[in-house]
């Protein structure tokens, strides 16, 4: 068959039905009608829900490599943050212990029971080394008081709400005020002395049952997130 005699018209299948322009106008009008009905009576809600349910597994499979990478990156970052926070906690405790060893009177008043039991357990794991180095730690009976205060050398005062951890310093909305004032230092010192309840002793900590000590040690690992 010569090239000039080849049939160039579309086969019969594509010549059936309305023209392409008519179909475009029809489906555009149908889309507008569906949008209007859905806006008025929410008729397409079940259809959208069905499509979402059917497509959800495909979407999750497509996203899984990215989610896995995010989880790995977040885990690595969390581990680095946890190591940094634990190192800072050890440094703070070391500084308190060294001050007590030099003969400086270090008195700490902690809540007998805070509003977070997990925090109480984690804090209890840090008490024994401080007691062994001469730091005096007292329990403040209920009710729980979230305010923080510190007095150094009867002159320098720190008053506020922030804990000495990275969550309070970086994440939470906290406020502290630093004051140099003899009279205020004396007032705060007297207030803290009045808040002292039973003193915590090394013997008391050592007498704690083994399950309690293991629980506290496990909770201490979560300090960077508390």
Walkthrough of the structure:
With 226 residues, the chain is mostly helical. The protein has a domain at 105-225: Endonuclease Chain A (Endonuclease, Chain A). It contains eight helices and six strands, in the order H-H-E-H-H-E-E-E-H-E-H-E-H-H. Strands 1-2-6 form a three-stranded mixed beta sheet. It has a three-stranded antiparallel beta sheet with strand order 3-4-5, with helices on one face. The longest helix has 57 residues, at 45-101. The relative contact order is 0.10.
- Averaged pLDDT, please? 75
CATH superfamily of the domain at 105-225: Endonuclease Chain A
Shape: elongated
How far is the N terminus from the C terminus?
Answer: 85 Å
Topology:
Elements: H1 20-41, H2 45-101, E1 107-111, H3 117-124, H4 127-132, E2 136-140, E3 148-152, E4 156-160, H5 166-171, E5 176-180, H6 182-194, E6 199-200, H7 202-206, H8 210-220
Parallel strand pairs: 1-2
Antiparallel strand pairs: 2-6, 3-4, 4-5
């Amino acid at each position: 068959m010569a090239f000039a005699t080849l049939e160039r018209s579309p086969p019969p299948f594509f010549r059936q039905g309305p023209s392409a322009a008519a179909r475009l106008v029809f489906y555009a009008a149908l889309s507008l009608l569906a949008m209007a009905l859905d806006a008025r009576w929410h008729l397409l809600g079940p259809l959208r829900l069905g499509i979402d349910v059917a497509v959800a597994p495909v979407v999750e499979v497509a996203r899984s490599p990215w989610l896995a990478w995010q989880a790995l990156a977040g885990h690595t970052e969390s581990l680095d943050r946890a190591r940094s926070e634990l190192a800072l906690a050890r440094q703070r405790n070391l500084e308190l212990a060294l001050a007590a060893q030099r003969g400086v009177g270090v008195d700490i008043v902690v809540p007998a029971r805070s509003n977070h039991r997990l925090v109480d357990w984690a804090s209890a794991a840090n008490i024994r080394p401080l007691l062994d180095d001469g730091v005096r730690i007292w329990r403040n009976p209920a009710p729980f008081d979230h305010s923080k205060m510190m007095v150094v050398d009867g002159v320098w005062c720190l008053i506020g709400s922030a804990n000495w951890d990275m969550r309070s310093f970086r994440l939470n909305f906290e406020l502290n005020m630093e004051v140099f004032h003899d009279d205020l230092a004396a007032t705060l010192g007297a207030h803290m002395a009045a808040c002292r309840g039973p003193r915590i002793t090394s013997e008391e900590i050592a007498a704690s049952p083994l399950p309690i000590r293991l629980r506290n040690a496990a909770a201490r690992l979560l300090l960077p997130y508390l």
